[in-house]
Amino acid sequence: MLANVKTSNKKMAHIKKLLILLSIMILGVSADLSNKCCKDDAHLVMRTRRCSDGSKPFLDCNKYLYKKKRGVTTFSLDSHENLVIEENPNHSEFTIEHGSYCLDNLNDTDENVALICFDESNEPFWELRGGCAILSIIFMILVLIVYFLVPILRDLQGKCTMHAVANLTMAFAVLATVQLGRFDFPACEILGFNIYFFFLSAFAWLNVTCFHVWRNTVRPTTPSSPKYLYWISIAYGYGIPLTFLTGAIISHTVPGEHLKPGIGTNSCWLSGEKASWIYFYMPITFVLVTNIIMFCWTGTILWKTVGSNFRQSHKLKVLKTKYVIGNFVFPNRYLHIR
Hey, what's the signal peptide range on this chain (predicted)? Predict the structure, then answer.
């Protein structure tokens, strides 16, 4: 008799546990459904940030997509249906108020993501940066006009400088467009890759310009046709950026767990510091390092060979000025895009 009572109590305890677990699951499911981004039979699509049925998510605000880091990030809902996001390694936790987020599966998988509204309080900051970019564009166009109007400036070095300035102008033009406007997929993605290409092209042509200064100083007697050198410069100045652009697009579109550029995912630029370093800052660092090497090499040769003659001294000043402008003014402009 006593054994039957104990068995009955154990069964009741198991039933209570199952009921509690079932209640928690029902509450969790109802909470997720009440905050679902898309309709019941749809899911979010990574590339478009729209629902799989073509509709927009229910969340009506400026939003960005927050992906879980596998084994690191956890989503949970508190008693007021606020979203609690916890980053395990840093033990950091922040809460998103109910109505400022929605949850859904990504690309028809079990991977949960959140769309989160962001504050527009920094809008004047982006308008200011866009205005500064437009101001830079005006002055760069004036530089190009001077080169077009003065034929003597359009030698090999001048043409390379024109290409560098033209690409920088285009980069700032697209950048200003992004900063002053609001774009969704696919326009945001297209604009982001344009910014990426034109900035890399500007840096590549800066490298070409520095190479020609180095060559005219260190190897002035090397026989080469200016036309031949110009076409080689074009192949390098546009070939290198196109190579990086092609690689970035392939990496962006091919499915997998590799590090993707993420352009057009959360913004019209590279997604995250790691992607920015791999796809943008590392190529730029290579260009700047080679420019510094050529600068030091050129400066050493000039220091050894230039005497007290006024003409030679004047030539030294011109070369130094031109080289310093090319190496330090342009990079300072570029590195303010982030």
Answer: 1-31
